[in-house]
Each structure stands twice: as C-alpha cells, then as structure tokens.
Amino acid sequence: MHKILTIGEILVEIIATEKGDGFRQATPLIGPYPSGAPAIFIDQVGKLGQAAAMISRVGNDDFGHVNLDRLKADGVDISGIAVDPLGTTGSAFVRYRADGSRAFVFNIRHSACGTIRFDEATRALVGTCSHLHVMGSSLYAPSVVESIIAAIEIIKSAGGTVSFDPNLRPEILDSPGMREALQAVLAKTDVFLPSGQELFLFTQAKTEAEAIAELLAAGIKVVVVKRGADGASYFDRKTTLSHPGFAVEEIDPTGAGDCFGATFVTFWLNGAKPAEALEFANASGARAVMISGPMEGASTRADLETFITAKKG
Ligand code: ATP
Ligand code: MG
C-alpha cells in the first residue's frame, strides 16, 4: 500500500471579492480558506482515500487550526505538522485582475512554515512513505529545501518515487537558492507535472516536443503537461496522449493544478492506465475550478465518477 508525502507551505488564503490590480487600496475580502499548494495536493490525495501525510509547521492560531482540521477530516496524517507556539501560520492574499491573472501578497518565508526542520520524528514519518510530491513553490527557505532533499534520498533509496510540479509564481521565483533547488529536485523526479512555460524552465528546447524528449531522455518516466481549460497531455517513452478539458464554468482556478496532480499521481501509483489517470485528473482539475476557494473543490473518487459519467452523458 502506497503512502504519499508532501513537505512545504501551509497557509490560509484570503480572497478579494472584487477584481482589480492588487492591494494598494482597501477592498472587500473573504477567508480564511485552508491553502498552500502542497496542502491542497495532499488534501486531494486524502479525499481519494489514498494514504497521505504532510510535513509542515503552523502557528498555534486559528489559521493553523483551519488547516489542521480540514486535512485531518479529509484523511491526511497530520502527525508531521508541528504546531509552533511562537509562530504565526502563513497567509496569502489573492486578487484576480480583469484579465484572469492573479496578484498575490504572500507571508510564507517568515511564517511558521518557514522554520520546518528535519528531525528524528520527521525522519521516522518519511520512512513510512513510498512517494514524495514536491511543489516548486515549497523551495522557499533553506531548511525546507534541506528537508525535501533529505526526504527524496530516503524515499528513493527505499525504491520509492518522486513527482514534481514547478508551480512557480513570479512573486517567489527569486527566493535565495530556489533555482538550484528546482534543478536538484528535477534530477530525482519520476513524474513531472509542469504547466505553461514551466516545461521550458530546465531545457534548452524551443518546442514542446523537443522539451519533452529532453526530459524523458534525462530519466524522467512521465511528463504531464497541464493546459488549463484545454485539459492536459501525457508523455512517456512509448505513449503520447491528450485529454481535452471538461467544459465547466471557471469560478476560481486556484488549486486546479494541485488537485489535478494529486489525482494523477494517486491513480498512477495505483497502476491505472495513463488514459484513465489523465481522465480522472482532468475531472479533478475541472471540479476544482467550479468552486471558490483553493481547497474547497477537492473531490472524492465518487464525485469524480459522477462528474465524468454526467459529462460523457
Ligand atoms: P494552479 O493555478 O493551480 O497552479 P496550474 O497552472 O498548475 O494551476 P492548470 O493548467 O491551470 O494548472 O489546471 C490544471 C488542470 O485543471 C488542467 O490541466 C485541467 O485539467 C483542469 N482545468 C483548469 N482550468 C480549467 C477550466 N477552466 N476548465 C476545465 N478544466 C480546467
Ligand atoms: Mg500549479
């Protein structure tokens, strides 16, 4: 039986209810919603009934409890999430612009999850897991990068696997050491889940086909390219497959990539055929965008089956 682990940021998300460019004027807000890319990912894994754990840190405050309560309710092992009595839980304020792009104000590096430490208890938890999922956004602080690299070594040397979603936001790309850390993770990746220009971050290639070929030649087993409303494509050395996006009304795109990735990795680890894993992942991403709030649109397997059946009509 597989157990999937993530290490990284736990935040609350607070959403501006009116579109506009950032936060330089007072604007109505709604939240807190449980959030943080690896937290959304692992919540979606837990909701699918797959064994799941997270290593992180929150403050002993309501924002921390919003997250702990949700993850626990959805079946995630939260024993690796430390509650720091002196820390404050991370936060992200997000406002959508009229063109659909997003402006963020993040408090991550200087929040409780900026001080994640790899100790004996975390080492023991990592030892119970067979797969690590890494979010590029989680490489925001040296101690988190060290924890992720240590976990990769433990899991891979025990025959486990690693998936990696670069999940880059311009606001955090220039964190110290982030580019080097991204490269180090990619070198150990089995399943790579980029979206948009992230496919070209680590290659010299000019075209998508060349970039995929380069990544597969470098030892990555599977590349899945996320294409928003247009769905996603799957590549391994033998197979190329695409699945169109399911037609839905997009209310809030945050979390779609995380739910998509969690569903793909869960199905892949459990031996699903690529076409089935891709279809369920697309359904998971589509359901995520229909609901406001980053983690609110995570799905159970029954939700996905009902959705797919209804869409195929
Ligand atoms: P995130 O903002 O969560 O980081 P991402 O860039 O990683 O997102 P996207 O490509 O935006 O990932 O979305 C992931 C998947 O979710 C898509 O591949 C698709 O399956 C589904 N999806 C996203 N947006 C839509 C949409 N508007 N309609 C239908 N499906 C969607
Ligand atoms: Mg993403």
From TrEMBL:
SUPFAM superfamilies: Ribokinase-like. Residues 1-297 form the Carbohydrate kinase PfkB domain. GO terms for molecular function: kinase activity. InterPro entries: PfkB_Carbo_kinase (IPR050306), PfkB_dom (IPR011611), Ribokinase-like (IPR029056). Coiled coil: none annotated. The keyword Nucleotide-binding applies. Keywords: ATP-binding, Kinase, Nucleotide-binding, Plasmid, Transferase. It comes from the Bacteria. Belongs to the carbohydrate kinase PfkB family. This is Sugar kinase.
